[in-house]
Design goal:
By secondary structure, this protein is an alpha+beta fold. It is built from three helices and five strands; from the N terminus they run ααβββββα. Strands 1-2-3-4-5 form a five-stranded antiparallel beta sheet. β2 (about 55) and β3 form a beta hairpin. α1 runs antiparallel to α2 and α2 crosses α3 (about 110-125). The longest helix is centred in the first third of the chain and has 16 residues, at about 25-40.
Length: about 130
Amino acid sequence: MNKTMVTKDLTPSELISEQITGLTDWRGELLDRLRKLILETDSGIVEEWKWGTAVWTKGGKICSGGVFKDHVKLNFFKGASLADPNKLINAGLDAKESRGIDYFEGARIDEPALKALVREAIAFNPSGEK
């Protein structure tokens, strides 16, 4: 999807769906699966569209989903503060606050660990329970 297109008539969820539909390779399937897992984690998660990409929030920003030529990235805005006991975070390790998970073609998603990381990220938001 062209990031410069007019988006005023579409909801954030519709924009995310349109982005996924526009990806006709493994990246679309992967982003769709990640999206579903994030939304399954907590019924209060809201989808937003910021910076030309999917952003998931609850009481603050949780993570964003970025699509690149050779990978799909989940960027956790407070990733540096997350314990990540399952060692999912593999990108942006030198950044002050954010950290990410780069998923390459054929990557396996550790669903329970990803959901635990999303719940932990929610807890670091202003309305989260620390």
